[in-house]
Design brief:
By secondary structure, the protein is of the alpha/beta class. The chain has 11 helices and 10 strands.
Amino acid sequence: MKIGLVTYTPQEVKGYDLNVYYSKWADGQVFPAAKGMQNDVTVFCDAKAIREDPSIVAVSKSGPALRKNRRSNLAFDFVCPTHPQYRAKVLDYIESLCKETIIGVTLNLYHFPDQEYCVCPRCTELLKQSGLNWVQWRAQTVTKFVQEAKARVKGTFAVEMYPDPVLAKERFGLDLNAIAEFVDYFHVPLSSRDYLTNYWVDTLARDFAASLKKPVVVELSAEMPTDEKLNALLKTVAYVSRHKLDAVLLLVHDSENAKQVCKFAVQNKDFRSWLEKYDFKEMSQIVDSWAKIY
């Protein structure tokens, strides 16, 4: 199993096999390509674009897809996924990234906000014209966007998955089997402020590895490290390493944050003894490789 990073700074870090850089953020910030890295693009979450033109927001009977709309439990502000000008803008940005020497592109938040979105006049008309039912039309809409993005990507193409392996299609328009035809791997973020309780990570990682038709990488949060949190995080990585995952990615703020994780693992004799005692071979190999650097 590989170990990798998801980071907000365009800098590769020694000891990590895969380096993913957030090049377009949910707040609307857009950055140049990080050369030599996998570039992660937030697609239909763009708070800046919605502030500039509120008409592009996705809507439901409960109101707009905004964080401030407390009728919906949304973490981000969502643009309507059928808005033609916004779609074109994101696809052009993806194409511009691929003119640089990058590993590839990962899409995140490229789907509908949730089950009741979007019922704007354009989506309502497109649904009617399609002759499909609500679930089928939304899934077709998302899959077509993935296909359009794939056509512009040179290199590795991946998509992030909302961590719901059961109702992804009904809630977000994610037809996992259809999307699998276009991607090299699925990227599943299992974010948390800490992993002091981690059985849910183990369960979801197992479910996604068993159900998805392409390789799976799992992302865990490592941005707010304390000794207690780092110990729990690394043990969680060890547990999920026993599943059929291509990689585990650690979300960090920057390179120093990433190095801190490595140094903690290398210097923590109790943790390394724990790995040996319970035969976590994959994780032991990762820590041994870090020990040669840190």
